[in-house]
Amino acid sequence: MFTIVSLPGDGIGPEVVAGATRVIQALAEKHDLEFSIEEHPFGGASYDAHGEMLTAETLEACKECDAVLLGAVGGPKWENLPHDKKPEAALLKLRKELGLFANFRPAKVYDALVDASSLKPEILSGTDFTVIRELTGGIYFGQPRGYDESKGWNTMVYERHEVERIVRLAFDAAMKRKKRLVSIDKANVLECSQFWRNIVHEIHKDFPEVELQDMYVDNAAMQIVRDPKQFDVIVTKNLFGDILSDISGMITGSLGMLPSASIGTIHALYEPIHGSAPDIAGQNKANPIATIASVAMMFEHSFCMKNIKEEIYAAIEKTLSEGFRTVDIANPGDRVVSTTAITDAIISNLKAS
Length: 353
Ligand code: NAD
Prior knowledge:
Layout: E1 2-9, H1 13-31, E2 35-39, H2 44-50, H3 56-64, E3 67-72, H4 87-97, E4 102-108, H5 121-124, E5 128-134, E6 146-147, E7 152-153, H6 160-175, E8 180-185, H7 191-204, E9 211-216, H8 217-226, E10 233-236, H9 238-250, E11 259-263, E12 268-272, H10 289-301, H11 306-321, H12 339-352
Parallel strand pairs: 1-2, 1-3, 3-12, 5-10, 8-9, 8-10
Antiparallel strand pairs: 4-5, 4-11, 6-7, 11-12
Helix pairs in contact: 1-10, 1-12, 6-7, 8-9, 10-11, 11-12
The protein binds nicotinamide-adenine-dinucleotide.
């Protein structure tokens, strides 16, 4: 039996997590698998009920389970709380406590939505790569940091073990895909990047089948937009990954389509990259695909069932090709359906496959 902790959170979080939970239940039935899905309060919902965004009980449950599925947190109601009490602080604490040092963001284009991107269809069609961003080190955490009247400063620092573990994970991921890895750095200017690059090449010796390429971050930003199909797996440090994973995601379509996985040595958390969308919360309008695709990543990474991940993606693709669109991905004239209707369609395609 696999144990999943579900943290629906706030705004559209509960709606999209409910859809994704129904997908898991349908898969359990289809493949004769057993899941225990335990729901816990998190974010504003938890603050209202318990006076804390992340209770000790929720944290403990996340540490005990095989995988965490998160919706989204935050909203206007909790915006004016002190910084350390805000939902974002709880999210950072959760990631840190679970030791989630690697963030996976797939950039996959669905054929049915190829026209929705700002890029030309012929450039985009067939794009399917993953950005792996180091999540708990680098300039976002390095000391010293600060500013005064005359200057501001941050420190980009990586320990050897921090680079080694993410780079190994990236080579492993490349081995499971097309065996091509691009490591993105700024080794021509930053010593910290040269250090990163040296370690990447050391570890490459253990993965001789993987074709490795180094790329400077400025060139990478250009290449992702110019010819995204050239990439298979990208690995990069925290700062560069923050920016490049957003670019990579957005060339493929709407916020409502983009899943993510944050992985550590022991724990893993899966979540859509969008927020709680207070403007459409409670209206059954939210696109659940990002969360359902996050479940697909859960099947691959936490349960080692790549076949089910592919089944989920195929069911999403089929549903889109049948013309189902939530409001965020609809063009004028499209048939706009609700969160539950598009989830029903995905489930029925899953059952039929
Ligand atoms: P947002 O992602 O919630 O929404 C941006 C726009 O995209 C909105 O118009 C929204 O309606 C739309 N949108 C987002 N997801 C959608 C979906 N699944 N289906 C259809 N439309 C969708 O970003 P925001 O408005 O900047 O933030 C709202 C709240 O969410 C804030 O409190 C913010 O702090 C929080 N937030 C949380 C997370 C998280 O939980 N990981 C991430 C980002 C923002």
